[in-house]
Structures are given as C-alpha cells and as structure tokens.
Design brief:
Length: 388
Amino acid sequence: MNDTSAVKDALRRQQIETPSWAYGNSGTRFKVFAQRGVPRTPQEKIDDAAQVHRFTGVAPKVAVHIPWDRVDDYTALAAYAEERGVRIGAVNTNVFQDDDYMLGSVTNPDPAVRRKALDHLLEAVDIMDLTGSRDLKLWFSDGTNYPGQDDIRTRQDRMAEALAAVYERLGDDQRFLLEYKLFEPAFYMTDVPDWGASYAHCVKLGPKAQVVVDTGHHAPGTNIEFIVAFLLREGKLGGFDFNSRFYADDDLMVGAADPFQLFRIMYEVVRGGGYDEETGVAFMLDQCHNVEPKIQGQIRSVMNVQEATAKALLVDRDALSAAQASGDVLEANGVFMDAYNTDVRPLLAELREEMGLHPDPVAAYKASGYFERVVEERKDGQAAGWGA
Ligand code: AOS
Ligand code: ZN
Ligand code: ZN
C-alpha cells in the first residue's frame, strides 16, 4: 500500500487493547516496586486505560483479569467504561494463583480441582455475557517440573475435556483464545507449550476456538512471523498478546527489544488479511511496567504497534511480488527493508492531528496533569497490583 491516505485510513481504524493489569503495581519474584498514583480499583484501572485512548485515539478497549478485576456488578463496570470512552475487551481467566493449582488446574490429577478450575472458566463466560466481551483468553500455567511427575497424555485428555466444556458454553458471538507458552511456571513440560498444541485443540473444537500468540512465549530465535502467517492462512489466529522480551517472558514494552520483529509480524498480519476487521485478530498488549511509569508505558507501546503497522502497510507489495517472482533476492529484501527503514513518525503525527489529537501523545499526556491529579487522589487505600 503506497497511497498514504489509504495507509492513514487503515491506521485510523486500528484498535489496540490495553490490559488492566498493566496499570497496577508489578514486579518480579524478587520485588514489586510500588509506584505513586497506581489505581486501587478496577474502575481506576479503566480511568487510566481511558487516558491511553484519549491521547492515542486507537486504544478503545481494556482487557480485564478475573479475579483481579472482580466487581459485584459487571454490567455497571461496562457502563462505567463506556462513560469514559472505552469498552471492556477480553476477559482473562486466572487458574494459576490458588494453592489448589499447585499440580495444575484443568489438568490436575484431582477431579475436584479440575472442577473448580472449569467452574472459574465458565464463570468468566457469564461475565462476558454481562460486559459484552467477545473474547475469553485462556492461559494455563499447567505443567510438570519432573519427568514422570504426571502422565503427559492423560493431561492432554483432561485439557481437551475442559476446553470442550468451555467451548460448549460460548455464545454465538463469543470465542475463546487459547494462549500457549513454552515454559514457566512449569519447567519440564507445559500442557499447552506451543502454537501446534493450541492449534490442534482449537481445530478440533471449531471456529469459536482460536490461537493467541503472546510474543514473549517462544524459544529464543523462533520465527514468530511464520507462525502468524500459518495461523492466518488456516483462519486460526485469534489475536496477540504483544510485549517484548530479551530473555524469557519479560513482558517489556512491545517493540522495545526488537522493533524489526514487530514489523515482520505486522507485515504477515497485513499480508494475510489479519488487519481486516472481519478476520477478528485482536491486538492486545500483555505487559507489566515494573520500573517505568505505567500509563506512559502503555502510550509508548500503543505508538510502537502503530509504527510497526504503518511500516507494514507501506511495503510496496507490487514491487515485492515482482521481485519475488523473478527470483531477485536482493531486490525483494530491499523493498521490504525500505518500508522498515521509513520514518513513519511524521505520518503518524499528521494522522493524529487529522483525528483531532495532539501529534505527540506522550507530551500531551504529561502536560495534561492527569498523573499529578491521581497521585493526589489515590494517596489512601491499597494500590492494585498482581492479585489485587
Ligand atoms: C502468562 O504468561 C500469560 O502471558 C497470560 O496472558 C497471563 O494471563 C497474563 O500475563 C497476566 O499475568
Ligand atoms: Zn499473555
Ligand atoms: Zn506471558
């Protein structure tokens, strides 16, 4: 796509979903650093997410995590979000934090624990009915630490059984996104370790089961854009959990570690039709801001996704196809790199002005005084964090 107005039109309709947990305190197993002005309630997390949308114009949804965002009235929570100009996005489940889940949740050898985990997943669909959410995000920490600890194959049977029960419960306009992860917290075997396992479970169940690619969940050196191209071709890419990593599941700002990889991924999304609304690919962020300011970290991340998308949209597809067809390796690579090396910041600044926004979202947010205001307002009470 070379016509800049077409590129701008495509960028204008992009929707990047931010995670409620990115606004709370977070850290590592060593330390959670408390920051000032951190939200104390699910409503305050939504307030912060609304700021990201206010200054970027392309972050209209916020994902929730249950029970971290548990409230008595989810219809009221959805209305609260709408009043602030955003909507509730994916509902994320949590079957990893209870003592009961030490040996697994839906794959636990104990049927009572499996039932408890399944009940939580089904409750999350009840919540989706109330919030109007389309996507249920399923991530299982299930796995084993030692060879022989449990039967790998039986655990797959248990996983399949639970997924089928959740699938059955989904409404017509709902779907689940099954997230895979190579390791952590399980260190020997994870029950959904890679896209192949997720894909196989999803294919068996049908169109309402889709794979979600968390960019931090692969072995080093994995060609993630290949996975994206493959899943899109099969109609099985449900969305992304975007973040970046230097080592493992670092949950750093997307585009921080490897902007070129993000561009390559977004190119395959565009190439495979994943950018079209009807394909339903959800662009979600799954990040934690341990040492940087959180709202600003989210704004920066949204901008990084936008920049990679703009570059992907700028690839001269005709020139690329011609070079590929003639076997001109260096010309093809050159066309690709030209798009990547384009400075798209002026185009995005222009787009924001056309959208009635400040061309520099970070500067506008900083000048707004929002942070100083919430630091003052949120002085008392318990700040939200992982598990709150
Ligand atoms: C865990 O590694 C996954 O990325 C999940 O998406 C998880 O639910 C999320 O990171 C919140 O902890
Ligand atoms: Zn994730
Ligand atoms: Zn993760």
